[in-house]
Amino acid sequence: MTYAEVRIIGSKSRDELRLLVDTGSLYTWIEKEILDRVGASKLGNRKFKTIEGREIERQVGEAVVESSGEKATRIVVFAMEGDAQVLGVDSLEGLGLEVDPTSKRLKKVESFKAY
Predict the structure, then answer these.
(1) Which CATH code fits 6-80?
(2) pLDDT confidence bin for 52, thresholds 50/70/90
(3) Could you tell me which of 54, 56, 74, 67 has the C-alpha nearest to residue 97?
(4) 31: helix, coil or strand?
(5) What span, in angstroms and rounded, lies between the C-alpha atoms of 41 and 64?
(6) Strands (E), the chain
(7) What's the first-to-final CA gap in the chain, in angstroms?
(8) Domain ranges across the chain
(9) pLDDT value of position 5
């Protein structure tokens, strides 16, 4: 498993987190209380299908995500009790990071696809 040190920055403050990198999750999921405290903007609700096949609805918003010296505004999911907190693929791609399968650490993408 790969973990990343992540800073979440909103309009009010910032918070430091250690998140599991989940390449099976599109978005980054962070506890609602943390996103509310830092002042992540709220965009509305989206439906998600869990690994067990259940359909759930969660609030989504935007916050600045920073990791490995890279920073980008990304979509975040306001996780509820029982939801995992993870760094998803959308954030990885937006930050220009990927998982090194050998070291199981994040590394900067050497070049981006132009298509």
Answers:
(1) 2.40.70
(2) confident
(3) 67
(4) strand
(5) 10
(6) 3-9, 14-21, 28-31, 41-49, 55-67, 70-79, 86-87, 97-100, 105-108
(7) 30
(8) 6-80
(9) 97
